[in-house]
Design a protein that fits this description.
Chains A, B: Belongs to the HAD-like hydrolase superfamily. Two copies of one chain form a homodimer. The first copy, chain A, is α/β, with parallel strands linked by helices. Chain A contains 13 helices and 16 strands. In chain A, helix 2 crosses helix 13, helix 4 packs parallel to helix 5 and helix 7 crosses helix 8. Chain A is elongated, with a radius of gyration of 20 Å. Chains A and B meet through helix 6, helix 7, strand 12 and helix 8 of A and helix 6, helix 7, strand 12 and helix 8 of B.
Chain lengths: 306, 306
């Protein structure tokens, strides 16, 4: 396995001819938090003109597809709702279509996840603030909801000790499903000094208390690609996955047999590619993108001559 | 390595003659939550009469030594404060004596830990409720305390998302120490159905967000035994560790070269000993107690003839 190739202007024709469908991660790729990465809306428009199908695959579980639509529009992108595959949607559709879910979900998640659950007519409880009250002797008597048949975890800024307790208690029953949107430990915050904890940190707390691992639906799990295949024609060898994280985006590409392009505007650096090449873990060693490019701004500029 | 021997009445003389010091874990060994395990106060008294030194080593970080004294007294034990080694005390003395700590600690912990920190004159912040307020754009501007030079994690029922964020942010600076009292994922609750999350679940959340591992001071780390050696004469080969958990109590015994006795009134079962014997992990295979006994009630009865 060799190091990723830089996607230069010389390699552009070969790259463009290699795909019909192009999957984009969003944060760190098309935008950084609320700032669009220059010229990426033009890139999406240009790809459509060229007959390519852009699709959007994000592990972020804080927004519904509708909320993502609003964000895309606000940042100047022309995107339709059915092109968006976010993990709030993924969790709801997994429960509805794969588990044929009846009963109620204990949901550690965001208002965006609630919106998707409502759209799919899934009963849930657990969202919003839930701090402890009283002593441990009181919690022992905490009322449990016998209708709970799944624990679902996404990003939740109101995560609390009591939520760990309830989630871990519900999944003691092995017939209760245990799913998570993603396992990202943290999110970068540009120049800001803070570490924004990801869903992965919440999931780890519950997994440790429960002694049981969640089924993680988001990237790099190929469920995202399976879902796309139900709605779009997707030929893996004619598809490129574009992302900023090796262990989610690029790994998804490998898991689903797609071509891969790493952009350097987000989490992973070229030095991380080198670390993967030298890793003792075979999964890391396999996780090398086919191409890398500094940013999609550069790709937009290259494509302007096409 | 063979299976643990049952500590029968026939083996009692050999057992008693083998030690001068006997370390007891507390919950699941001497009591279960707030119920004393029958005849254990008499056992401690009897051991003293026989010239043995009992000491008490617990990973529970919710109580100070003073608070433990009260609990021992309430349950009918005669124990002095300097015989108690709990992890609230361990964390404070580690900062004071090992780190020669200056500055302030960001403390995720209990009122018991606060009491020990005050006794050792360690400045701290972070305890009590701390839920999120506002949007992520606000947290980016969260004021950080430049005096923080350590993040210390113990059991905290007021654990929250914002505490993960602050802890992970402080330990981004590798010169900031990162210590935890213990790594127990959960605590049993007798017949009750709830899972009580342990410090380990809190630590996992922060470790995952930070991408950095805590130094865990409690059992099975032998720091507990090092601390005892500063205060008492302790000859490892003349010492028995009595506990209900293989991966903390019995592992501490192995790590510190002590004799070990497993009681079956708490977390680990005889089937867990069998699992360890068959484990592919060499640490598990090593972690087999010398003896086991159903409960300390039985040991008290055996000893009544001595």
């Amino acid at each position: 396995m060799s190091r990723a190739k830089e996607l230069t202007k010389q390699l552009l024709r070969q790259f463009v001819d290699s795909f019909d469908t192009i999957l984009f991660d969003c944060d760190g790729v098309l935008w950084q938090s609320n700032d669009v990465i220059s010229k990426t809306p033009a890139l999406i428009a240009k790809l459509r003109d060229m007959g390519k199908q852009p699709l959007f695959v994000t592990n972020n579980s804080t927004k519904s597809r509708r909320q993502y639509m609003e964000k895309f529009a606000k940042l100047g992108f022309k995107v339709s709702e059915n092109e968006i595959f976010c993990t709030a949607y993924l969790a709801a559709i997994y429960l509805r279509n794969i588990l044929n879910f009846q009963g109620k979900a204990y949901l550690i998640g965001s208002p965006g996840m609630q919106e998707e659950f409502k759209l799919f007519d899934i009963n849930y409880t657990g969202t919003g603030p839930d701090p402890v009250a009283g002593e441990v002797e009181d919690w022992v008597k905490i009322p449990l909801d016998p209708e709970i048949k799944a624990v679902v975890i996404g990003q939740d800024v109101q995560f609390s000790y009591k939520k760990i307790l309830l989630a871990a208690t519900y999944i003691r029953d092995r017939t209760v499903s245990f799913v998570a949107t993603d396992h990202e430990g943290r999110h970068p915050h540009g120049a800001a000094k803070i570490v924004e904890p990801g869903t992965g940190s919440i999931v780890s707390a519950v997994e440790t208390a429960a002694g049981r691992d969640a089924l993680v639906l988001g990237k790099p799990h190929k469920f995202m690609v399976d879902l796309i295949k139900e709605k779009f024609t997707l030929e893996p060898r004619r598809t490129v996955m574009v992302g900023d994280r090796l262990n989610t985006d690029i790994q998804l590409g490998k898991n689903a047999d797609l071509h891969t392009l790493l952009v350097l505007t987000g989490v992973s650096k070229l030095s991380d590619v080198d670390s993967n090449l030298e890793s003792s873990d075979p999964t890391d060693r396999e996780c090398i993108p086919d191409y890398y490019i500094e940013s999609l701004t550069k790709l937009t500029e290259y494509l302007s001559d096409f």
